[in-house]
Amino acid sequence: MSAILEMLQTAAEMGLIEGLTVLALFLSYSMLGVCDLSTDGCFTLGAVVGAVVALAGHPWLSILAAMLAGISSGFVTAFLQTRMGINSLLAGIIVNTALYSVNIAILGGSSLINLNKADTVFSFFRSVLGENGKSYAVLLVALIAVALATAFLVLFLKTRLGLAVRATGNNADMVKSSSINPIFTTTVGLCVSNAFTALSGCLLAQSQKGANINIGSGLVTVALASLLIGGTFIRRGGLLVKALGVVLGSIIFRLVYSLALSLDMPAYMLKAVSSIIVILAISLPYLKEKFPEFRRKIEHSPLGKKLKHKGDTNDA
Amino acid sequence: MLDLKNISKTFGKGTVNVHQVFGGLSLHIEKGDFVSIIGANGAGKSTLFNVIAGSIIPDEGLVELDGDDITMLPEHVRAKTIGRLFQDPMRGSAPGLSIEENLALAAGRGGWFSHITRADRKAFRDRLAMLDMGLEDRMNQPVGLLSGGQRQALTLMMATFNPPKLLLLDEHTAALDPATADKVMAITDKTVKENGLTCLMITHNMTTALEFGNRTLMMDRGRIIFDTCGEERSKLTVPDLLDKFRENAGKNLDNDRMLLS
User: Fold this and answer.
1) How many domains does chain B have?
2) Which residue in chain B has the smallest CA separation from A170?
3) Are the Cβ atoms of B93 and A171 closer than 8 angstroms?
4) pLDDT at B188 exceeding the cut of 50
5) Residue B9 domain-assigned (yes or no)
6) Taking CB atoms and an 8 Å limit, are B91 and A178 in contact across chains?
7) Cα B182 vs. chain centroid, distance in angstroms?
8) Distance, in angstroms, between B158 CA and closest chain A CA?
9) CATH number at residue B242
């Protein structure tokens, strides 16, 4: 029983912490209409910046530093796609690649960092919660972070600036007609979303007491899978409901993953599974729409006519 | 009011597809004018609007609005004083945002971090009621659920929420069914008159061109070949316009949509 509870708790912790990245994609992918492929690198950036600052003895400052690093990364991605004529997907990939070097440089040439002895946000909450409650420290911090991030995001998206960001993904022409520069709104949207991604990485590194250079690799697909799972569970409702829905998607993803692990699925299958989820979630609606046309083509082909003919004679 | 001075624009310079749209076009519009513009396919009507609105920067020449040189001003900055509607009713509003949210962006009240207030909602409601389309009771619905006519009427309201110095209408009723087109045109006329707007309207409907406004321009191959207002215009009929075109352009008017209407 306790093993199951433990599994549920771990899934919830991971789901909530990565839920911040899913919220970031909720903003960039669902609202702004930009598939931000710098997510992996930015997540790692948040992890290493947070870890280095925490190791230097500033656990609270580490969160701020990680988010600022994320904002900078988002700014560069936005600058490349809005001012330099680089396709938005390519801009994300370029920044992601560059961040690999940047992240190792931040770690001083090393590819991993150990936080066993450092004070972190989590060690602070562990000492506050005391001997009985300390095992819930990660869950508590993750909950607080997700609650704050969700509240901020929902309030932000209802401001005039937030409306403009949402409209940019919807109809950039209309944003221009409203005397707002879509370049500005794209930049703001990517800065905010990357701040969330970096925060997510920072918290994961500190909760695991360390980070390596691959901590974020493949995360964009995992987060996209969570986002799309959340979208299938929560189809309607206001922004708050939708935002909570995508965090729920992240937790469900982690639960299913833990379940699969306990059924002896090897851990390295995580990324393949998340890729398949993303493929299914995006292409099923497309295939569903195309199906009548496909059926017509089959019926029209020589083979289809043959089969149909056979069916007719059988009926007779 | 609006002055275009010696505008030149050539697309695809240095390629086999080089195409000069304007070679020194000049145009003066008086404050309060409501000008209808007709012309053949490819006459440069929409390009003219693109130059005025800032979607295209001319190779040469000046665009002046109220005495200010706006030739190099970016599109979104010009949008503060120039409202624009397109033929495609989907182009003027954000489908994923509610009616209220679209209006809030168009109204542009408050700072970046302001929320929609109760006073805003009341103002939006009153304005929507004037359209007489029942939209005032659907303010929280996404705009994507509206019909083409409703969206175009909403776009018109958004473009004129803060009365612009200049309103550009680019065949804004062409994609609507005839009854809806008439309704949107009536709302347009009312809005322009009530706010005393200066307005340029491209239309393929010659009757509309003569019925609304106080001046009519006829364009062909980047030039204004006929310009009429006042008494002369009030006596013109659609056949007269076709004759004028043949006379001035040396060919029959070949706007495919125009022949059908």
Assistant:
1) 1
2) B94
3) yes
4) yes
5) no
6) no
7) 16
8) 9
9) 3.40.50.300
Domain boundaries, chain A: 2-215
Domain range for B120 is 30-57+72-260
Interface mutation target, options A174, A183, A187, chain B, most CBs of B under 10 Å: A174
Residue B200 corresponds to which tokens in the numbers above?
A: 């340029």
- pLDDT higher than 70, residue B255: no
Chain A residues within 8 A of B97 when measuring between CB atoms: 163, 166-167, 170
φ/ψ region of A270 (left if φ > 0, alpha if ψ in -120 to 50, else beta) reads: alpha
What residue in A sits closest to B162 (Cα-Cα)?
A178
Cβ B112–A159 below 8 Å, yes or no? yes
Nearest CA in chain B to A182: B76
**Averaged pLDDT score across all residues of chain A:** 92
Q: Which tokens go with A233?
A: 């569970």
| Run of H or E including B68 | strand B68-69
Taking residue B67's Cβ as centre, other Cβ atoms within 10 Å add up to 7
Across the interface, of A161, A171, A176, the residue whose CB is closest to B76 is A176
A216-245 burial, b for 16+ CB within 10 Å, e for fewer? bbebbbbbbbbbbbbbeebeeeebeebbbb
Residue B21 lies in a domain: no
Q: Is there a contact between A144 and A121 (Cβ–Cβ < 8 Å)?
A: no
Instruction: Kindly list the residues of chain A whose beta carbon comes within 8 Å of any beta carbon in chain B.
Output: 158-161, 163-164, 166-167, 169-171, 173-182
Q: How confident is the model at residue B42 (pLDDT cuts 50, 70, 90)?
A: confident
What is the enclosing helix (H) or strand (E) of B155?
helix B148-159
Cβ separation B79–A158 shorter than 8 A: no
Whether the CB-CB separation of A193 and A111 falls below 8 Å is answered with no
This complex has an ipTM of 0.88
Confidence band of A24 (pLDDT split at 50, 70, 90): very high
**Given this model, what pLDDT does residue A182 score?**
95
A contact test, residue of B97, B103, B139, B152 with most A CBs within 10 A: B97
Query: d(Cα B24, Cα B21) in Å, to the nearest integer?
Result: 10
Contact (CB, 8 A) for A158 and B115 = yes
Nearest Cα to Cα of residue A251 among A275, A276, A234, A269: A234
Q: How many A-B residue pairs are in contact by the CB < 8 A criterion?
A: 80
